[in-house]
Amino acid sequence: MKERIRQKADITLIPRAVIGTNAWGDALYGKMLRGSHVSEDTMLEAVKTAVRLDIPFFDTARDYGLGKGQPIVGRLCGNDTFISAKYTPAGKYKKGQVKASFEKDLKDFGRNCVDIYWLHLPNTIGNNLHEMIELYREGKIKNIGISNFNLKECKRAKAILDGAGIPLYGVQNHYSLLDRKWEKEGLIDWCRENSISFWAWAVLEEGMLVPPKKDEKKSIMKLLFSRKRRKLYPLYKVMATIGRNHRLKIPQVAMCYVSSKGLVPICGCRKPYQVEELAAAVSEKLSVAEIRQLESAADATGVKILGADMFRFAVKK
User: Fold this and answer.
1) What are 245-278's pLDDT values in tens digits?
2) Coil, strand or helix: which one is 265?
3) Which of 184, 187, 239 is nearest to 208 (CA)?
4) What is the pLDDT of residues 201-230, one digit of tens each?
5) Environment class of residue 48 by beta-carbon count within 10 Å: exposed (0-12), middle (13-18) or buried (19+)?
6) CA dist., res. 169 & res. 183, Å (int)
């Protein structure tokens, strides 16, 4: 195990793309919320494909797949993969809560360390980060990140880590072609100025940036957004035109858009072909003119999906 850690430490953890595992779960979860069930054998092939295509990064959290996702990550992701996990603070802070949760995570993963560990909400920032700093110094966390933080909260977190002599690895927030709030408010520029990686989740907006098919299986998420989805047809047309220039499908254009902006797209993949499409998407780069064309078409739809602040209700004042 020490040899594995030493080898990983020589690698700069700036992935081209990350495999999201929010949809990894049991059969009931898959059918109800995602429209279909995918076996662990199929997900294992997706993991092998990610390793082969040099995007062996897997992002997870305790509640993914209604609690089933993280153990699946532990079973399927071997020592040739990188795990990104999270601590989600809720309620009043209790000393030792991060460490206790982290030890459960390690049991799920069957590992003695995690490559990147994120504070998932800006609750009791100081206390929670100080526990993460201790885990970092013990070698159990290789990199510390923050998720769903606004710019002011990011600056506070960075100051705490700077004081401990530890770099802030990254910020993981919602970002897509349809919602670019963090760019407009200066957070992304701040990350660039400070060499902080920005990971974008909901790049495909829960499937809204995937044109509907006549025979597609309905999921709860797709039913919830079906009305808004119809308003996106003008955008789909622009994405299709640009996609032809790069041999990309419409969803791949949404992925490529994010990576072309210098950000790291997190995309849910349960099947090998989905990993292949993600890898192909981030291997292309859109021109400045194409990016502007996409953004103009997206803004013209007036559609907002999840919203960059969707988790603010859980932030304690």
Assistant:
1) 999 999 999 999 999 999 999 999 999 999 999 9
2) strand
3) 239
4) 999 998 889 988 766 666 655 566 667 788
5) middle
6) 18
> Who contacts 32 (Cβ-Cβ below 8 Å, separation ≥6)?
219, 220
Ordered by start, the domain boundaries in the chain are 2-314
Average pLDDT, the chain: 90
Q: Is the CATH number 3.40.50.170 carried by domain 2-314?
A: no
What token pair was written down for 14?
């700036």
Distance CA 32, CA 154 (A): 35
Q: What angle do CA 121, 18, 68 make, to 5 degrees?
A: 65
Q: H or E element: which one contains 243?
A: helix 233-246
Q: Are 35 and 72 in contact (CB under 8 A)?
A: no
Model pTM score:
0.92
